[in-house]
Every structure is written in structure tokens, then in C-alpha cells.
Specification:
This protein is 82% helix and 3% strand. The protein has one helix at residues 2-108; strands spanning 114-115, 124-125. It has a two-stranded antiparallel ribbon with strand order 1-2. The chain starts with a helix and ends in a 6-residue tail after the last strand. Mean pLDDT is 88; it is low at 123-131.
Length: 131
């Protein structure tokens, strides 16, 4: 019986040792869990801060894109108007050159009557007086 008692005592010692080892492992694991939960809490806080910043940047970007679109529209209108001015200036220059050439030609022929291409332009010259 002493032998059985010694075996029982040996089993009991091993069982206590195993339980202590399991408790130690659980304690280490709990410390790791606590660390990761703290890290998760910090990351979630940082994520919230980043999401708020992202929303602010998106709002600002949207406003800037809208303003840029307005600039594009105004610039396009101004360029279109400027092109019309250039075309009108070119047409005016052509008329002036043509009439200048006509004046040179009529100056050498003093008896010829020179008129513009349009009857209502008011531009007519001859060696005779106008009535």
C-alpha cells in the first residue's frame, strides 16, 4: 500500500506541477491579449482620426474641383470671346488694306469713281463733287 500511496503522491505532484504550468501559460497569454487589446484601441482611435481627416480632405478637394471647373468655364468663355475679337480684327485689317489699295489705285486715276463692296458703306470718292 505504501507503494500505491507513493505513486498517488507522485501523480498528485505532477498534476499540481502541470496545473501551475498551465496557469503560468494562461497568465502570459492574458498579458499578450491585454497588449493587443490596447494596441487595437489605439489603432481604432487613429483610424477614426484618419477617417475624419480624410472626410475633411475630400470636402476641401470637392470645393477646389468645383472652383477649378468654374475657372475652366470662365477661361473658355474668355478665350472664345478673344477669338471672336481676333477674327473681327483680321476682317477689319483686310477691309482697311483693301480700301487703302483702292485709294492708291484711284489716286493714279483721278477720274475714276471708287466705292466699297457695300453700297451703304459711305465710302466713295471721285474727282467730281458729291451732291
Amino acid at each position: 500500500m505504501a507503494r500505491q500511496g507513493a505513486a498517488l503522491q507522485n501523480y498528485n505532484n505532477e498534476l499540481v506541477k502541470s496545473l501551475e504550468e498551465l496557469c503560468q501559460r494562461r497568465h502570459v497569454l492574458q498579458a499578450a491579449i491585454d497588449n493587443e487589446e490596447e494596441e487595437r484601441k489605439q489603432l481604432e482611435s487613429e483610424k477614426l482620426r484618419i477617417e475624419e481627416r480624410l472626410q475633411a480632405v475630400n470636402r476641401s478637394l470637392s470645393q477646389k474641383l468645383s472652383t477649378k471647373s468654374e475657372y475652366d468655364r470662365v477661361i473658355g468663355e474668355a478665350e472664345g470671346g478673344y477669338m471672336k475679337i481676333l477674327e473681327s480684327s483680321q476682317a477689319l485689317l483686310n477691309v482697311v488694306k483693301t480700301r487703302s489699295q483702292d485709294l492708291k489705285t484711284s489716286g493714279s486715276r483721278s477720274n475714276l469713281k471708287v466705292s466699297s463692296t457695300t453700297p451703304d458703306s459711305g465710302y466713295q470718292q471721285s474727282s467730281q463733287n458729291h451732291h
